[in-house]
Design brief:
The protein is an alpha/beta fold. The protein has a 5-stranded parallel sheet. A 4-stranded parallel sheet has the order 2-1-3-4, sandwiched between helices. The protein is about 40% helix and about 15% strand. It folds into 2 domains: about 140 residues, Aspartate/ornithine carbamoyltransferase (Rossmann fold); about 160 residues, Rossmann fold.
């Protein structure tokens, strides 16, 4: 597999390999510090970023490469050059391309037209690099034996809910989303894809619209901001009202297992999707998740450039 364009592209063997290497990079960040020696990696972002930019640039540097950061208005795409032409040009100068943007179709086209690995570092549909960071954090907390555990996402049925369902299905986990019904529920095609994967992985996929029912006995409560970049501002008041019951509070955490953890991809809005006492409390692992954005992107670059990710 040349690229990582969607979470669903990964096999369980791919994820296991990536998480194992990421765990090694967490302990020995410079153990492969010549893997990208004298090579460059382009990092193209049309959405603002804190964790993804820092993780990507440091991952490239730890592998001995040089990151080239490109803002959305730095390229000729805004003046009519095609995505295909842009991909071909970047391929002449870089050994890999990391992309954080809006449309999944743009990332798909970059993958088709480039001769180098392309990594989806976030689109409106998916967020595979975040889920790798999430799952190495889950393994650190609970180990690899997750039998009997339930992993719950609460809130907006957005790209994070999609990636959560798909990666959980790949991992053979009991994964749940709890969102409002209707337009802020996960995409039905994504749910169907997760259930298709679950048929062979042994995963359990559940979609609820009641946060208390979903949270009962959970090992993880996960959430994301309620207003994502690009969401229509005109929908803010309605969306905030509908999502308010899905906020992760201490009361909701009391319904979970005694060793449960709270997770969030960040940035967080305290007092909206999560209370301050939860995200800043002893069960929160959000800073460890953020740390693993670097280790997992580093593992992705290392194995994709070497042609070692096989795909589904």
């Amino acid at each position: 597999m040349k690229d990582l364009l969607r979470t669903a592209d990964l096999s369980r063997a791919d994820v296991d390999l990536l998480l194992s290497t990421a765990a090694d990079f967490a302990v020995h960040p410079l153990m492969a510090n010549t893997a990208l020696a004298n090579r460059t990696v382009a990092i193209y972002m049309t959405k603002p970023s804190t964790r993804t930019r820092l993780a990507s640039e440091s991952a490239v540097a730890h592998l001995g490469g040089t990151p080239i950061f490109i803002r959305g208005d730095d390229l000729q795409l805004g003046r009519g050059e095609t995505i295909s032409d842009t991909a071909k040009i970047i391929s002449e100068f870089a050994s890999a391309l990391i992309v954080r943007t809006y449309a999944q179709s743009d990332v798909d086209e970059l993958g088709r037209s480039s001769s180098i690995p392309v990594i989806n570092a976030l689109t409106d549909d998916d967020h595979p690099t975040q889920l790798l960071a999430d799952w190495i954090t889950i393994h650190e907390k609970f180990g690899k034996d997750i039998a009997g555990r339930k992993f719950v996402y609460l809130g907006d049925g957005n790209n994070m809910s999609h990636a959560w369902l798909i990666m959980g299905a790949i991992m053979g986990a009991h994964v749940v989303t709890a969102t409002p019904a209707g337009k802020w529920a996960p995409n039905a095609d994504v749910v169907a894809k997760a259930r298709e994967i679950a048929k062979t992985s042994g995963a359990t996929i559940e979609v609820f619209h009641d946060p208390e029912v979903a949270s009962q006995g959970a090992s993880v409560l996960y959430t994301d901001v309620w207003m994502s970049m690009g969401d229509p501002e005109a929908e803010r008041a309605e969306k905030m009202k509908v999502l308010q019951p899905f906020a992760v509070t201490s009361e909701l955490m009391k319904l979970t297992e005694k060793d449960s953890i709270f997770m969030h991809c960040l940035p967080a809005h305290r007092g909206e999707e999560v209370s301050a006492e939860v995200i800043d409390g002893p069960r929160s692992v959000v800073w460890r998740e953020a740390h693993h954005r670097r280790t997992t992107i580093q593992a992705l670059l290392y194995h994709l450039v070497r042609g070692e990710i096989k795909g589904r």
